[in-house]
Amino acid sequence: MFTQLQSPHFFAHRGASAYAPENTLAAFELAARQGAPAIEFDVKLTSDRHVVIHHDQTLDRTTNSSGALAKQPLAALRELDAGSSFSAEFRDEKIPTLEEVFETVGQKLFLNIELTNYATPFDGLVDQVVPLIQKHGLEKRVMFSSFFPHNLLRARQLAPAIPRGQLMLEGASGWWQRLAAGLMDLQAEHPWKADVTASSVQNAHRKGRRVYVWTVNDPLEMHSLRSLGVDAIFTDDPLRAREHFLENIA
Ligand code: G3P
User: Fold this and answer.
1) Considering the entire predicted model, what is its pTM?
2) Burial of 196 (0-12, 13-18, 19+ CB in 10 A)
């Protein structure tokens, strides 16, 4: 399905996170209803090695708890409210497991799984995620991304047919990811929006790679990136992306 995703398109970043709590089933299902072809979300391991969806290393910002997610077992995380910090109307939302996401939207949307073990880089996250993709038969409906090249190298070893995109930090701080991307077997590059130029897009395309840009919510930036020829953006706002990235291009 990766090769059938028509450029330009977009990923709903952490789901339709402008309208629903990020990285929840509500945000993913809303993204589908709003016409997103694809979503992006963040995976991490619990203390008992279940794969769950959550962006931050800690629980403080998006739940009614605090402290490191990696220190909690799944059962404790499932008790938390991951919706009220966004809006009272979402107070029943939970931190989802990866399997719940697969069951809920795996057949409706293309999935960018960001491997975000940034605080626990050698926790074996990829080894836990790949069997779940295989169990659900979703090898053709997912891709991996990560700021850590070693996660993508491990993914290539375990599941070489699943596409991989290297995330690159902003500006000078992304030098090591750009260096790694130059050496690796990748199907996509994920640069920060202000680092994209016409020639960086052309260089990636010459290597047969897609260019997927994070995180773009401003209509003017959508127009500008579209004119530079990027293949997709990550956006919190699927409705705005449909209007300004996919349509009405000057
Ligand atoms: O994958 C695009 C974007 O999500 C990368 O940044 O911080 O949202 O994981 P972050």
Assistant:
1) 0.97
2) buried
